[in-house]
Amino acid sequence: MRRAKVPNRRTRFLALLSDARRVKREGFSSLLKKQQSRLESIVSFARTHSPYYRQLYRDLPARIVSPAQLPVTNKPKLMAHFDDWATDPAVTLEQAKRFADNPDLIGTRFLGRYSFATTSGTTGRRGIFLMDDPTLAVRNALLWRAVSDWLNLTDGLQLLGRGLRTAVILATGGHFAGLSGATRNGKGSPWRERAVRVFSVSTPLPELVRGLNAFRPAILVGYATILRLLASEQEGDRLRLEPLLVLPVAEGLTSDEYERLARVFGCKVRTLYAATECLHVAYSCEHGWLHLNSDWLVLEPVDDTYQPVPPGETSHTVLVSNLANYLQPILRYDLGDSVVVRPELCECGNPLPAIRVQGRSADLLRFADTQGQPLALPPLVLSSLADRTPGVELFQLVQTSPTALRLRVMPEAGADPLRVKQTLERELQQLFAAHRLAHVSIEQAEEFPEPSPGGKYRMVIPLPRGG
Ligand SMILES: [Zn+2]
After folding, report:
1. What spacing in Å lies between the alpha carbon of 108 and ligand 1's midpoint?
2. Which of 18, 61, 215, 253 has the most crowded Cβ, counting Cβ within 10 A?
3. Per-residue confidence (pLDDT) for residue 120, from 0 to 100
4. What is the pLDDT of residue 4?
5. Rounded average pLDDT over 138-147
6. Distance 347 CA to ligand 1 centre (A)
7. Distance (Å) from CA 304 to ligand 1 centroid
8. How remote is the CA of residue 282 from the centroid of ligand 1, in Å?
């Protein structure tokens, strides 16, 4: 079958970066204009090339000027219409599942041309997301817009002088986009191979410290929990890094912990707000606000009936429209995060709208580590682990005591339930050991994952606070 033709999509990184920087310089009205025209263009493309959206939008007016005109989508809906959702008819769920479950294919491209990522998010239900090169080019341009905001000229020159060396500490071995897209990048240009090195989150700490000392990264990216351990190694003078920037990914860091990282590593600490469905949501500023990349996405904070929530108030969830991904259009998609939009312009002067992500602490598993230090495990660490365990349809961890978890698993149709459960348990044990949580016990549950009263599945059910 012929591949869909995508209109006016630039893939040149420098052109995208210069556009992104110009839009930000010109301010809010320029931003809205870009957002509006990109929304119109992707909606019209989706209606023409995605049978799912053609059907879903069949009664809508020909011209869409506001995302509020569109019905809401979510992961279960899109996964249920996977083949019809994609704008490339060659994409099928059957092939995607086979690809996801074959570890030999990690780091290769789906159908020879698409980046491939799976995610369980905070719901524990697996989603499969594809990106083409123009989508990744937008993500990269927005990442470098953020980096150029974070670093001053001196930092920037140092960064270049150090070959942009970036260490990314991730749960490797799975198909997931993460921050770096590193699974693919590692097999890209030789330059990238030198500049970006991926370390596995399950590497024993002394080995990780040795590897990082040898690599001497200028930018250090990793899960907040691992960066905390590394900060202790740096304090103990075993780790000797001089990074220009530390980027904790995944949630779960308090402002005290940000300050500690900044103090111990002697550099700026910033973060990104990303989801597999949209890798370029927002980036933080020095005042701790997250600035939305509104030229390439629409983010609508809404209440539980999908009505808009005004700035300053905590939303129930957010609806995201990713304006870059024409392959699998993500339009008015319920991301499940609760946010607050800053009512006035941020004091840092960035004209991009500023938000704070709230309420995710409900999804944090809290333990005391083997040295008695409190440790919160963010959902992303757990979901990425389930993503690389073949055959998991849905899973749920219920904390039954400060040191015990109950594991509920729903295997995919056709998978061997016992094997899936055992593999997942082994992966969890390894992960806990790497986080100094080897004393946390895992008990296999007979029952399947259970929905909360609202009908949604949560991947983790922590002990009630104070309990
Ligand atoms: Zn700001």
Report:
1. 37
2. 253
3. 66
4. 47
5. 92
6. 6
7. 28
8. 11
pLDDT digits (tens, 9 = 90+) for 294-303: 999 999 999 9
| Residues with C-beta atoms within 5 A of ion ligand 1 | 285, 287, 289, 346, 348, 350
CA of 253 to the centre of ligand 1 (A): 18
Supply the pLDDT for residue 176. 53
Distance 294 CA to ligand 1 centre (A): 14
For CA atoms 282, 283, 289, 291, the dihedral sign is negative
Cα(160) to centroid(ligand 1), Å: 25
- Cα dihedral: 442, 174, 74, 303 (round 10): 60
Gap from CA of 235 to ligand 1 centroid (Å) = 30
Q: Is 1 exposed, middle or buried (0-12, 13-18, 19+ CB in 10 A)?
A: exposed
Q: Give the Å distance between the CA of 342 and the centre of ligand 1.
A: 10
Query: Which tens digits make up the pLDDT trace of 175-203?
Result: 654 433 444 444 455 666 678 888 887 78
- Show the CA angle centred on residue 125, arms to residues 124 and 127, nearest 5°: 125
- Pick the range with the lowest mean pLDDT from 54-68, 78-92, 118-132, 451-465: 451-465
Could you read off the pLDDT of 236-276 as tens digits, one per residue? 999 999 999 999 876 556 677 788 999 999 999 999 888 88
* 365 Cα–ligand 1 center, Å: 29
